[in-house]
Amino acid sequence: MEFTAKQIAEILNGTIDGNPEVSVNNLSKIEEGKPGTISFLANPKYEPHLYSTKASVVIVNKDFTPEKDFSATLIRVEDAYQAFAKLLDAYNQIKINKSGISDKAHISGSARLGKNVYVGEFAVIGDNVKIGDNTKVYPQTWIGDNTTIGENTTIFAGVKIYSDNLIGNNCTIHAGVVIGSDGFGFAPQGDNYMKVAQIGNVIIEDNVEIGSNTTIDRATLGSTIIHKGVKIDNLVQIAHNVEIGENTVIAAQTGVSGSTKLGKNMMIGGQVGIVGHLNIGDEVKIAAQSGISKSFRKGSIVQGSPAFEYVKYNKSYAVFRNLSNLWERVNELEKKIKE
Amino acid sequence: MEFTAKQIAEILNGTIDGNPEVSVNNLSKIEEGKPGTISFLANPKYEPHLYSTKASVVIVNKDFTPEKDFSATLIRVEDAYQAFAKLLDAYNQIKINKSGISDKAHISGSARLGKNVYVGEFAVIGDNVKIGDNTKVYPQTWIGDNTTIGENTTIFAGVKIYSDNLIGNNCTIHAGVVIGSDGFGFAPQGDNYMKVAQIGNVIIEDNVEIGSNTTIDRATLGSTIIHKGVKIDNLVQIAHNVEIGENTVIAAQTGVSGSTKLGKNMMIGGQVGIVGHLNIGDEVKIAAQSGISKSFRKGSIVQGSPAFEYVKYNKSYAVFRNLSNLWERVNELEKKIKE
Amino acid sequence: MEFTAKQIAEILNGTIDGNPEVSVNNLSKIEEGKPGTISFLANPKYEPHLYSTKASVVIVNKDFTPEKDFSATLIRVEDAYQAFAKLLDAYNQIKINKSGISDKAHISGSARLGKNVYVGEFAVIGDNVKIGDNTKVYPQTWIGDNTTIGENTTIFAGVKIYSDNLIGNNCTIHAGVVIGSDGFGFAPQGDNYMKVAQIGNVIIEDNVEIGSNTTIDRATLGSTIIHKGVKIDNLVQIAHNVEIGENTVIAAQTGVSGSTKLGKNMMIGGQVGIVGHLNIGDEVKIAAQSGISKSFRKGSIVQGSPAFEYVKYNKSYAVFRNLSNLWERVNELEKKIKE
Predict the structure, then answer these.
(1) Which of A58, A196, A269, B52 is the most exposed place for a label (fewest CB within 10 A)?
(2) Contact B88 A197 (CB under 8 A)
(3) Which CATH number goes with the domain that contains B15?
(4) Nearest by CB to B212, which of A142, A158, A178?
């Protein structure tokens, strides 16, 4: 598909500097822009690329003032980054627009599917499953009995959702994710362990995104809960009975242990480990690779394993880098004192 | 299904305090207990919930003495937690009781299946595979040629087991687990690497549980061995030729490198890394996020990256938290000495 | 299949010490060697096993001089380890030699398959997919629309490759790998986040091996690129727009954040975390569990979280182990100064 700068400006509610009839058929980064593509400039650091880019159209912020000549047509908008993200999204929607129910899928007679649902080949939809309108279930996905999935949700290939779980509206769940596997619960019995059956479930609210091969365990009793707007990256582990507050963001390979409650709007770096039974406040920020061994108050910024206050950690670590020097200086002092 | 307190007390070999005819149809946590559910009280910390819970029946330890009024019927047993776990398990068995061979599965003509086996849709059972009685193979699972699986084992959806492996009795393998992929072995050849073929296998003994999306590599030669009773959480990596002793428990996202031998009854925290070719003693405990770079003796408790003795680590870390203070004090001492 | 020592010596271009007619039908480790197997001795540490092994044939380096008696026939070659690896590989090729297109696979009418391709049961091959000669696609694999796969590549069971990606020749991709899932990109919008669509792709060049359940995200725009000869272990996370230089080796559970560029011939230990937007030089070595927060120059060897120079890290860590001792000594010094 091709669009003119004029057509795009209308969609984005923007104004044009340059030729409104120039047309584009793809998106690009400004530093790699080719003729026939549209790009954007939001971060002033990238401004020099505007003067050399071959992209035909560049979206910029309303108040942007160029300092040199350039060849692209500009579209001026309120927020160039968000405008570009909208275009990306529209492009993406067109590309992944799968529909129809494959006759190679296995769908239980008791399952209920909404309007305009996509079910790919070799997907298995269990007994009493409900799937909302416009939801996409890609090939080779397993939806266990009694699980309910909302509207406009995308479940990519090979996702495994055990029985009795609830998935909300407008969620995106990437390939290989496992939802509702048993929590890791065992009671010691002499040298052995007895499995503690896990009969709870997982509740995922609206607008949640879950990255590929992430695992979310069902609760022992009750529910593991991912509140609305949470974004979880790839290969993350969420244990049984965890609760994650709204709009919290979790980077890849982080693990949250059983029964811990995370606040809203937290930012959690990659490879963080959080022990069980904690209660972490809203807006807490955790640096990558930190180990959280106790609860922190709202707004704390922490680092380390075990983690403590971020600024203090970095002061300690600055000394750690020179620790052999400190050791020698103490040796020297002891020698002098002896003298 | 509904059961009276009296019926449950008989199953659990317990005695009743209160109305033996009250009936329940689900299990609950004592702090969230609703009418018609059964709960338990084992940890004295939770005792206050007994006096407010709406659960109809609560299982308690034989010698428990309440200090206030409460509404629930009590069932007194030897060990309240284990009794409740038994109930959970019975409830779970009823729920996941799948059976039959789907005609949408692909089963090689040379495979041999025991009695009462479940094979779900789109599972692939390779040549010469043997599956024991009462074993469940969920949808979309791949069992490679010549692999043998014991009795009463559950393989959840999408598990991938390569050829020539052995899985024992009474195992539970969760969705997305990969067993028998190639060990990570490459021989340098100038700037490139030559792959070292991995022709060994994986042996998993009885009563092992493996969490979702965990990976266990086959041996280069010989076998990667998981001994009986081992419990492995989600997203764990077990490299080629590793051997894990009986009843060792490994939390999520831990990795064990090639040819390392772990002892029996170890407890390994989450996100631990263990280098290759070590020999770790029985009952060693490793704190979360530790890095194990050398062998430790039986019963050691260790922490750190690289790890050393737990108590000593924590003493060092207590000073680390105040390291900039120590630095300043040494500066001060040097100044005074100069004077 | 059985081979005589003489036949194997011819294949390996080696010379024989002992009975050339002894025959073998399997490979073994020298310390576990049984009659009828062939083993190798490269590391002098293992030499004592030669004098006790029951392996019928042992491959050794050309210049090896035994110091005691032994029963095996020797085959002398230029490099015993590489010669043995070649044998392993030949054995492996025979074992995994699957072929044919399953009529239970789903292959789009617009897909183009080369000669001698294997497609297993319940695989899904999307629209406009191209697959080169001699490539194997195992059961339950998903190849999204417009993806191209080269020749002699093996894609094991359950791999999920999204649309529009490129996979090279002679690659091995293990079970459960996800390639081309969305990068983790969200733009803050008040308390919420707006998803940034990810419309780029993943390019994997020739001779790359990727371990089970590893995830590689597609680029936002442009490509995530894995250059030729790269070896990636299990459960590794590669974020959007990352570029990995030729022949770099990455151990299990490591994560590389968005837009970071890794050099050639790097060696990266397990559970390493690398932040985004860095540029790491060729041949850099990173110790396991390190956290890389800044770019390092060619040939650096680093450790720590955040990482710095390896030797210096280890000096600091040696003091860290005795940090409470240092603290007490400073207390003592202060006391003495006061006096």
Answers:
(1) B52
(2) yes
(3) 3.40.1390.10
(4) A178
Residues C193, C117, single domain; the answer is yes
* Rounded Cα–Cα distance for residues C88 and A103 (Å): 43
Please report the sign of the dihedral spanned by the C-alpha atoms of residue A288, residue A294, residue A299, residue A301: negative
Q: Is residue A106 annotated as a catalytic residue, yes or no?
A: no
Q: Which residues of chain B have pLDDT under 70?
A: 1
DSSP per position, C84-128: HHHHHHHHHHHHT---EE-TTSEE-TT-EE-TT-EE-TT-EE-TT
pLDDT tens track for C82-137: 898 888 888 877 777 799 999 999 999 999 999 999 999 999 999 999 999 999 99
Nearest to C104 among B106, B220, B336 (CB): B106
Residues of A in contact with C182 (CB under 8 A): 172, 174, 209, 211
C40, C84: one domain: yes
Q: Which residues of A touch B78 (CB under 8 A)?
A: none
For residue A330, being part of any structural domain is answered with no
The reply to whether C332 falls in a domain is no
CB–CB of B321 and A305 under 8 A? no
Give the residue carrying structure tokens 């870390």. Answer: B317
For residues A236-245, average pLDDT: 98
Give yes or no for a cis peptide into C306 (omega within 30° of 0): yes
Helices (H) and strands (E) in chain C, counts: 5, 39
Spatial distance between the Cα atoms of C33 and C38, rounded to a whole number of angstroms: 8
% of residues, chain B, pLDDT over 90: 85
Residues of A in contact with C235 (CB under 8 A): 213, 235
The C residues from 85 to 124 touching B (CB cutoff 8 Å) are 85, 88-89, 91-93, 95-96, 102, 104, 120-122
pTM of this prediction exceeds 0.95: no
Taking the alpha carbons of B190, B192, B197, B198 in that order, is the dihedral positive or negative?
A: positive
**Is B319 within the bounds of a domain?**
no
Quote the domain boundaries for residue C240.
100-314
Q: Residue C336: its chain A contacts at CB < 8 A?
A: 337
Report pLDDT for C63.
92
Query: What confidence tier does C239 reach under pLDDT thresholds 50, 70, 90?
Result: very high
**Distance between CA atoms of B286 and B270, rounded to whole angstroms?**
9
CB atoms B89 and A160 under 8 Å? no
* Together in a domain, C270 and C135: yes
Task: Find out whether B73 and B16 touch, Cβ atoms under 8 Å.
Answer: yes
Residues B78 and B128 in one domain: no
For A278-312, the pLDDT digits (tens) are 999 999 999 999 999 999 999 999 999 999 999 99
